[in-house]
Amino acid sequence: MLTQSEIKLLHAQVNPHFLFNALNTIKAVIRRDSEQASQLVQYLSTFFRKNLKRPSEFVTLADEIEHVNAYLQIEKARFQSRLQVNIAIPQELSQQQLPAFTLQPIVENAIKHGTSQLLDTGRVAISARREGQHLMLEIEDNAGLYQPVTNASGLGMNLVDKRLRERFGDDYGISVACEPDSYTPNNVTTTMEGRGMIKVLIVDDEPLARENLRVFLQEQSDIEIVGECSNAVEGIGAVHKLRPDVLFLDIQMPRISGLEMVGMLDPEHRPYIVFLTAFDEYAIKAFEEHAFDYLLKPIDEARLEKTLARLRQERSKQDVSLLPENQQALKLSLVRGIVGFICCK
Questions:
Q1: Global model pTM greater than 0.90
Q2: CATH number of 198-306, picked from 3.40.50.2300, 3.40.50.1240, 3.40.640.10, 3.30.70.1230
Q3: Which of 79, 109, 167, 199 has the fewest Cβ atoms nearer than 10 Å?
Q4: 97 and 62 Cβ atoms separated by less than 8 Å
């Protein structure tokens, strides 16, 4: 039988990456739509309330759908047009009883390992039907990326399957069918190039994460955002075409991660890389991949200010190194003179 500790683990299992991305999404939405932000906070509260405390082991299908819908609404805000959701539950089945946390791990798996890896629009559909004395629940995504899992990454689904089989018999549980996948590339958005500016390219698969960063960078008088990309496939081409000085790069993206993307760039024309992620566990690997800096989501503006200050300092050094030798000597002597003057006051 499923141990009590396994049941508690299933109830308490919350992906920290989801939480950090949810907070980052809400932070971005607050700026432009306070009403939507308030609704997202309510969805997040519902999600955690049901994750952390259920009154009994069995719940109604309507209660399970409320839990899953709270999760999906936050993910829809995060991915915007890249995620579509359809939930079709007949009213006559809404009060059917089933074990709590039957749907959430499966839906989360469909997003995390399925639709979030697509370059085009992801779709998740949830439906229910009665077949004789059986309640059939179907969770379908259009990614076609399912791989059988036996390790910790599949813990939630494995526990759900185990619990259903032990409770009702081997005729019950989870079955998975998968068809081959497909993907479609998107376009690059560019702006006019300026002189003497720090050219920035943003590559992140989440529209609101890009917006959050864009709004802050646009307030900087010496920063020019030359382009935004929603995946590494676009990003590689944009780096070669736009020659940015700085690349703000998300790590977890569909198909090709930010870490993998850096390895595909021309070392001779590689910009300063500032990695963005919800997890600090990638830090060592990021700096092995020549990262200039590493920012955790949700991005702290004071921390970002420090990154920009360091970038400006490095850019200034680079500008000096590109001057002819006699002009370098003149510029350096002037800098020393200014420092000496300040120190003498």
A1: no
A2: 3.40.50.2300
A3: 167
A4: no
